[in-house]
Structures
1.
Amino acid sequence: MSITRRDFLNGAALTIAAGLTPATQLAAQPARYPPALMGLRGQHEGSFEAAHALAREGRKFPVDGLPISETYDLVVVGGGISGLSAAWFYRRAKPSARILILDNHDDFGGHAKRNEFTLDGRRIVGYGGSQSLQSPKSLYSPVAKGLLRDLGVDVTRFETAFERGLYPSLGLSRGTFFNREMFGRDVLVTGDPGSDEDNARPNAKPLSEFVSAFPIAEASKAQIVALYSAARDPLAGVTNLDLSAEAFPYLGVREAEIAGVPARLLRAGFVGELGYEIHVPADRACALWDALMEAGSVHGIRPFGVEAQRLLRLEKGHIIIGQDTDGLTTPGEAAVDWAVKMDKPYFVGQRSLEIVQRKNPKATLVGFTLDSTNEGAVPKECHLVIRDGKIAGRVTSIAWSPALEKHVGLAFVSREIIANRGGFFIRVDDGRMVPARIAKTPFYDAAGDRQKFAA
Ligand SMILES: Cc1cc2nc3c(=O)[nH]c(=O)nc-3n(C[C@H](O)[C@H](O)[C@H](O)COP(=O)(O)OP(=O)(O)OC[C@H]3O[C@@H](n4cnc5c(N)ncnc54)[C@H](O)[C@@H]3O)c2cc1C
């Protein structure tokens, strides 16, 4: 097959393998129809015959031994989102690269385009795929988000451009269909048992009401409701200790047997989630671990490591003594003087602290964030805070937060920076100055809801 004809569509060079180019077709048949004016014609004749012949008739196409008549640095097969992205990234890495994108359609986009067809004289318009970007703020990787930004896609436009009231205005809502083949009878259960607190979704229903209409056994319904709503606390299955919020509040300490092991429990919240520190004799730790993993297996329990723990605590703005402080740091400098009861009659160090407190600290530990558009080097722990060309502090913790989609950190900064409420620079390895801004901690779940028991 020789590929020779080229055209321009919306400023992009197209290579057409067979048939007329969109622009040529429009010239021949100037339809006053917007999609046609853009050159879009979807699953057009000429796009499917070869695949049908291959799949349905078992036809073979002799392609071996064809002469090479054109060369490219990259050949992409398929001009959908994936193929076009591959070409984009390749071109960005090698700006002068020659790239050939092959598709059996003359308009690119693959599934992610309009789907329109005529049935019994009626024109039906829907989407072939990709009606909207699925949660780009929370699910997309930094690379994918960077691509959207480079392409000029403003994801916030969704809020005003998408008619979210359409389905409710037509009396339509989500639902689940159970078919006769699998469930004995056809049943459509309408309603949305999502978890919005205000139940503002169309046809919102409590989960139990939604599940009660399922054509399944009562025991199975109860299991589904329990799976979604029961307290997901693996401790509940291995101890008689009352774990309710009233009996064992946040920061409480209790002694009890856990899986038959005598233990001291602290309801602490270093990572900001509902959790406990469990202290047991060292030789019983492995047995307790196994018992907890087994009890939690129905909830999908999984262990996590120190790196995750460090990130989770940073999102909560919890400091690590020895990393965010050193042997000279006072509670005032670390912004934890609230934790010291100075009105006690006496404690070791009280007098010294009183003297220190009379002076303003030179630097204070604060939370900070980097601008989300920062694409260069990221500061590291111990990099210096610079103001007016002078050292004005240091970074003690920094990490990328997938939950918040930005870099968050802790740093000692000078009084002047705090007084000016805000901006400062961090000097990174190559000498570049990365702008940062003081931010209130906790960065995540400021109300502390996640440390509370589920209702
Ligand atoms: C009904 C529907 C609704 C969807 N809704 C959403 C949504 O709301 N949000 C969302 O994010 N995603 C949605 N998706 C998924 C999304 O559309 C796809 O994941 C995405 O378009 C896939 O892109 P792709 O480039 O990987 O593949 P495709 O879009 O399938 O692209 C592959 C391309 O390769 C071409 N091709 C295949 N074989 C050959 C060949 N041998 N030679 C040359 N070309 C070939 C095809 O014609 C096609 O153009 C939906 C999908 C469907 C079907």
Note: The longest strand covers residues 390-401.
2.
Amino acid sequence: MNARRLQARWREGWWTGARPCASPHCGPRPPGELPSLVIVHSISLPPGVLRGDAVEHLFLGTLDAGRHASFADLRGLRVSAHFFVRRSGEVLQFVSTHERAWHAGVSSWRGREGCNDWSIGIELEGLEGRSFVAAQYRALQRLLRALARHHPIREVVGHEHVAPGRKHDPGARFEWSRLQRALGGCGLSIWPRLDPSP
Ligand SMILES: [Zn+2]
């Protein structure tokens, strides 16, 4: 681990291991609410195009809807996530973890609705049904360790788990077992749980 990685810290909910891109698409969490859940998503714009800056523009509210036919439905959409992990492993941060980002929509987990209130949203550059790459798993693991040290995070789940039937990301090709193996002993419960090894 190099010196730069060791020095990554938090400042007002901004992680110095990420490139900051402050989005206006956020708001306060309920008073006294601390993030205890991480929700993993996947996104690419246009869907399946794993490069370019369209996702960044979407979360910043600056996407030109005329740029591509598939962007028409995104006109006026105000969404964000706290983090975006690119295929290269680069991490961008759009919203302070102290604030509420707008990533989960209508959602519930363990009988509680409105997951945005107490969660952190991490988008992976990708597409449901496609694999993710090693650089993304490494970056995600590093980010999750940093989050677990800074916030009382208990569980890591997918968007598909908090909005079943409505959302399907990150999808079947996301390797939850890989996260579980890498983050053993970190105090995080990775969902879905695998059967314990015999
Ligand atoms: Zn999602």
Note: The helical segments are 3-6, 54-60, 134-150, 159-162, 176-182.
